[in-house]
Amino acid sequence: VQLVESGGGSVQAGRSLRLSCAVSGFSYSRRCMGWFRQVPGKEREGVATVTTRDGFTRYVDSVKGRFTISRDNAKNTVYLQMNSLRPEDTAMYYCAAGDFDSLVRGTADYWGQGTQVTVS
After folding, report:
1. What does the H/E/C string look like for 13-65?
2. Given 24, 43, 82, 89, which is the most exposed site by the fewest CB atoms within 10 A?
3. How far apart are the first and last CA of the chain?
4. Could you tell me if 18 and 80 are in contact, meaning their C-beta atoms sit under 8 angstroms apart?
């Protein structure tokens, strides 16, 4: 099982980044997907979750209207489009796979290794 994130980097406030997570090794289309973030010394925070086929999404309040999660089941890839970035969005971002309720609670069946996002 592999979840490989990419697209992180350092940007100025107000700019955009798009994170990608390429998945292999399990039935991607049968798992909900989520993005989490964590700052050293703080608890991991669920950022966004998307269901399997109907594309229902859920976001933490702090990113609503700025971030968009999407998935391409043909490419086994989930994305996080991040617009109007703020310094407080700085964190390590992880993608994860599991059932919807578990992702909302902050747990998952599978995790990626993370990609760093720094906003200054």
Report:
1. CCCCEEEEEEEECCCHHHCEEEEEEECCCCCCEEEEEECCCCCCEEECHHHCC
2. 43
3. 34
4. yes
Query: For the segment 71-87, what is each residue's pLDDT rounded down to a tens digit?
Result: 998 899 999 999 999 99
Task: Sort strands 115-119 and 9-11 into parallel, antiparallel or unpaired.
Answer: parallel
CA atoms within 13 A on the CB side of 96: 25
Share the mean pLDDT of the chain: 94
Residue 86 · residue 13 · CB < 8 Å: yes
87: three-class secondary structure by DSSP: helix
